[in-house]
């Protein structure tokens, strides 16, 4: 069967996520220091990490929902610092908004737009992310027909839910879809689990961790059109 649909992971597949995340964390921190003094001032990096881990332990049901988990953490940090429920609630919303604004300012890989435009002329393109990035807030928005976030679907990759949502939305069979992603477990194993083709975006030249390999491996998005073409043959 010819490939009809390409689904993409976003972070570290279409852009490097780390610069945006660092800026986003800074923005959230600045907001708290200014508007909720005492909330994080006395934590060092490790202390804050410990606090977060305790919140995760108390809320395992939110592990697939990075946005909700961040809001809960922000709220609990303020409550622990003595702010009221109401202050903690609005503070969490504002601090998270400061975070998201920077989180969405991602810089697509140099070659990404040209490749996506080329692929969009021939295939249906979708986005599947475990994070809270929004492809529709980037310059690549016009090339995407659909996008699913783990927090909307209710389960994160490698669970089959997001891949099945893509299949249902595209109205096609797994042998007509290829999923492209950087994470061997979330992206490759997850997509293999529902029978899709897979392309491992290995831009950082990692060695394969073991298990069934992807159908193709690329170092740069420039290699993707030929890799997808070869799958169909
Ligand atoms: Mg990724």
TrEMBL record:
InterPro entries in the cross-refs: HAD-like_hydrolase, HAD-like_sf, HAD-SF_hydro_IA, HAD_sf
Keywords: Hydrolase, Magnesium
Residues annotated as transmembrane: none
GO biological process terms, semicolon-separated: riboflavin biosynthetic process
GO MF term (any one): hydrolase activity
Needed cofactors: Mg(2+)
Protein name: Hydrolase
Record organism: Parahalioglobus pacificus
Native organism taxonomy: Bacteria, Pseudomonadati, Pseudomonadota, Gammaproteobacteria, Cellvibrionales
């Amino acid at each position: 069967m010819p490939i009809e649909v390409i689904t993409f992971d976003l972070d570290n597949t279409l852009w490097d996520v780390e610069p945006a995340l660092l800026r986003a964390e800074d923005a959230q921190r600045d907001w708290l220091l200014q508007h909720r003094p005492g909330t994080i001032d006395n934590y060092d990096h490790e202390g804050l990490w410990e606090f977060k881990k305790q919140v995760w332990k108390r809320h395992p049901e939110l592990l697939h929902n990075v946005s909700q988990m961040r809001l809960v953490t922000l709220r609990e940090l303020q409550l622990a610092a003595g702010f009221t429920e109401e202050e903690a609630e609005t503070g969490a919303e504002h601090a998270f908004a400061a975070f998201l604004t920077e989180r969405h300012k991602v810089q697509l890989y140099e070659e990404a737009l040209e490749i996506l435009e080329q692929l969009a002329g021939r295939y249906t393109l979708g986005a599947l992310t475990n994070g809270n990035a929004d492809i529709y807030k980037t310059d690549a928005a016009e090339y995407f027909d659909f996008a699913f976030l783990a927090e909307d679907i209710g389960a994160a990759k490698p669970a089959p839910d997001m891949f099945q949502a893509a299949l249902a939305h595209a109205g096609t069979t797994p042998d007509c879809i290829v999923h492209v992603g950087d994470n061997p477990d979330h992206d490759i194993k997850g997509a293999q689990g529902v029978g899709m083709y897979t392309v491992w975006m290995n831009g950082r030249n990692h060695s394969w961790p073991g298990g069934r390999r992807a159908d193709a491996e690329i170092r740069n998005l420039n290699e993707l059109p030929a890799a997808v073409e070869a799958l169909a043959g």
